[in-house]
Structure formats: C-alpha cells, structure tokens
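Suppose you are handed a protein chain with no further information: no name, no annotation, nothing but its sequence. What can you learn? This example shows the usual starting point.
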Amino acid sequence: MTSPLAVGQIISIPIEKLVDGGSGLGRWEGRVVFVPGVCPGEEVRARITTVKKSYAEAALESVKKPSPDRGAPPCPVFEQCGGCQWQMLAYPAQLRAKVEILRENLRRIGKLDKPNLLPPIPSPRAFEYRTRIQLKTDSTNNRSILGFHEEKTHRIVPIETCLTAHPIFNRALAVLRSIFLDPAERPPGLTDIHLHLARATGELLVRFFAGDKPPERVEPFLKKFADAMPETVGQVYTSSNGRRRVRGRDHLIDRFRSIPFRISDRSFAQVHSELIELLIDTVRMLAQPTGLESVLELYCGIGTFGIFLAREASALTGFDENEVAVGDANYNALQQGLTNCRFTAKPVDRAVRDLVNEKKMFDCVVLDPPREGVDRRTLESLIRLNPSRIVYVSCDPATLARDLKILTDSGFHPGRIQPIDLFPQTYHLETVAELIKA
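A reasonable first move is to predict its three-dimensional structure. Written in structure tokens, the prediction is:
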C-alpha cells in the first residue's frame, strides 16, 4: 500500500519523462507526480501542491541530480510567465521530448503501436521566431502593467522583452511602455494588445482592445505609436461592444513561396511564419495532387493550404466559420487568377453535413482544426463523404490521436506522420498526418 501524500510535503523524486502540458512525470512510492520545470532523467526535490485520487502535482524546490541537457533559462521571468515551459532544456532535447509525447499519445489514445513517424522538422531558430504575440495590459488604479499572463492565472507578469518574439516586437514593447508610463497619453481601459508581423514584407499590424467607450485620446495614442514604429501599416482599436476604429489598414500582406497573402486583423495566422512554407510543402506532399483531384479544405482560414492545392488539383472547395478569413481566402485566390476554387463562410460541422446530404464527392480532404480537434459528429459526416485521402494538420497530439483512432476504426489506414516544431521553448507541436482509404 502506498504512503499518503499531503499538500506541502517535500519529496525526492526521479523524473522519467516529459508529458503533454510540459511537466515532468515521476513516481513516488507508486504514485504518479507531475512536476513542472524539470528535465528527463533528473532527481529533484519537490513540494506537493495538489493531491488527486490517481496523481499529485508538485512545485520544483531544487534539482539534486541535474540532466546534462539542463541549462540556465535566459528569460528573467521564465518561472512566472506562462508563455514558455522548457527554456531550461537544450533545444535538441526539447525536440526529442515532443516526438516522444506525440508517439505516446498515438500509442495510448490512437492505438497506433508502430506509427510511420517521419524525422521531425526543427525550427531554424530556438528564439526570436514568433511573428505574432498577444500582450495583456492593466492601467487601472494608477497602475501601468504590460506583459503576459502568469501560467494558470490571470495575473499579468510585467515584461521588458520576450526572447521568443521577433526583435521588432521588443522595439514595439519599449514604445508601448514609454507611452503607458504617462497617464495623460495612454487610453484608459486597455486590456489587450495583439501584434502581427509579416516576415516577408516587414509590415506590422496592431490590434488594441479596450472598454466600450473609446476615449478621445485614442487617436493621439495611435499616432504616437505609429510614428515611433514606421513598420506599422495598420492599427485597429476595438471596443468591448464590437466597435472598431481603424487607422491605416486592417490587414497586412505576407508572402509564402513568393505568393502574396492578405491577412486581416480578425483572421488566424501561425505564430511561426518562417516555418509556414515547410508546413505548406508537407501538406502538398501528403495530399499528392496530380491535377485531377477534387479537394475539400475544412477550417480553411485565409486559404494558406488551399491556394497552393488549387494550383495543383482539379477543383478545391473550402469552408471556415470565420467570415473575415474566408474573405481573405477568396481575395487571395482572385489575386492569383484561380478560378477552380471557392471558399465559403459556414460552420464546418454544418458544411460537411450539407455536403453529405448533397451527395458530393471529394478525392482528398485537408483538415486544420483548432486545438480541440474535430467533434465526433463532424468526423462521422466526413467518413460518410468517403474520400480516398485525408490530410490532418494538428497542433495538439492528444486530440490528433483521438481523431485518428476514429478514422482508422472507420476504414482509413494511417500513413506518414510529420512533426514540425513551430513552438520552440514550449511543449506544443504541429503535426501533419496522412490517412488513406483502405
């Protein structure tokens, strides 16, 4: 019988591996204990913070036996900020851990004992890769705080620089801090600031979020920021009631494989634009278009994959519930002179159900769902469409494995699975999986 654990208890525990969520897994007298901030193979002292029926959680107190892959986290707020989990771990070891987490999810949830995992595609840089960040702000009670949320809380951790962000964002941070320090210049009620950089063109788009009554000094605030950041092509100031004030453009233009893409302020964009081209190449490789196929793209967004697939397939149909993103997709297709593709704003679950009722047929389906994956009813409708091939783009190994299990149980054979590391210093991993109708 295992000894009981109590909150506040200090234990010595060996760390077996890293798991989804970024923590290390160890066992104390047979009880699973999760500890953040540790490396595989280490022995640590940890303080129990939570006790559940089947596991416990603990906070790292000290490292008794460090891993050779451990280093000093370069960020001064690494232990408070919720943005990164693995800065203490050398990048090659991060990549190995991510692949093992993916493999474990495919085995445990997906029931794939021998998945055809291709070698992971690493990030060309471990830092300064993010081309999109979301800042939190608080200017109430005569305070001036600008930073990121502390992990698992809504407390804002003030930051001066973000090491994973493109250097232009750290210049923007300095400008924002200088404005925020003057209560006469900063608009009250700001809660969020989103910055998006087009790496290929150097254009910067900024979104500001605030209360429902934009104050009169919004325009001087926006002008001062734009004057200090000449890369800025547009600023969008959004009130909580949905009203938008646009200064300049509400979109930017980026390029992938030399093709221009309009990305509006309310459209989704990957945080690591340097690897988007390799992600596109991977989808094209697994979709294998020959010029004869009819392709369905679900969660199509701005048409990042669809624009390229339409150039190589017979026809492409795309759906996404985001009307702004679909507008971008159709604009991007028009700019390329593509007449064989059409993107429609419609919830994906309803779109697939309608396609089944209309007895539509597709040779290939490309999926790029949000982190929660595809809901069961949509997958069942997709199975009824009976495509020859499915290419599934995922940012969460657990929901990918869950959905692959449903698809493989329904007659699809799992093919190549390509991990791509879009998120260094974190446990997150992008994966592209191929499924072929058996």
